[in-house]
Specification:
Layout (H helix, E strand, L loop, with lengths): L1 E6 L6 H12 L2 E4 H10 L3 H10 L7 H13 L6 E5 L5 H12 L7 E6 L2 H15 L7 H23 L4 E5 L4 H12 L3
Helix pairs in contact: 1-8, 2-3, 4-5, 6-7
Bound molecules: cytidine-5'-monophosphate and magnesium ion.
């Protein structure tokens, strides 16, 4: 199995690249952000709870996110592997993912971080906000809070997987095709 954590700040291109990688490597794409947006769109209790955090650019509590992720993984018992996009975002989420995969006698194969600097990210997200309809993409102070939360709570996840030699970085600036090639070179060797 290939279990890839696609990592990087908001707006770094994780979703775009995940959509291409799932086709090439025949994996299941799990985007926790997309799952939350689906729940919010249907105004479910989970969606309403998530919205109170997402609208401020904060993280949804770990137990909520971990439970949702677990359900999604368990819904695909025959998967050849997964791309986790936007998860894990905290050390606790990483530990929960490791435990979940260990329960199926598998593990995270690699974490690949897309590197994009802050100002480029703010510009990209604002551009996306014009068409995405996402309120959290349309307000610069919320965007900057998401970047701050990424730095304080999420970047330790890179170091966590680096301890077992699993963390990689690629330049996340360039054409979609160029970045896809950089990622494919790493995933192809797993
Ligand atoms: O991954 P994405 O940027 O689409 O996530 C959008 C929002 O969903 C995040 O800013 C955060 O509020 C919430 N989220 C979270 N925990 C995750 C993934 C997303 O709280 N693991
Ligand atoms: Mg995304």
């Amino acid at each position: 199995m290939i279990n890839l954590v696609l990592f990087g700040p908001p707006g770094s291109g994780k979703g775009t690249q995940a959509n291409k990688l799932v086709e090439k490597f025949n994996l299941i794409h799990i985007s926790t952000g997309d799952l939350f947006r689906y729940e919010m769109g249907n105004d479910t209790p989970l969606g309403r709870e998530a919205k109170s955090y997402i609208s401020k650019g904060e993280l949804v509590p770990d137990e909520v996110t971990i439970g949702m992720l677990r359900n999604k993984v368990e819904a695909h018992p025959d998967a050849r592997g997964f791309i986790f996009d936007g998860f894990p975002r905290t050390i606790r989420q990483a530990e929960a993912l490791d435990a979940l995969l260990a329960g199926s006698s598998t593990s995270v194969s690699a974490l690949v971080a897309l590197q994009v600097d802050d100002e480029e990210i703010v510009q990209r997200i604002k551009l996306r906000g014009a068409t995405s309809g996402r309120p959290d993409d349309s307000d610069e102070s919320i965007i900057r809070n998401r970047i701050d939360v990424y730095k304080s709570e999420t970047t330790p996840v890179f170091d966590y997987y680096a301890q077992s030699g699993k963390s990689h970085s690629v330049n996340g600036v360039g054409s979609i095709g160029e970045i896809f090639q950089r990622l494919s070179d790493i995933v192809g060797q797993l």
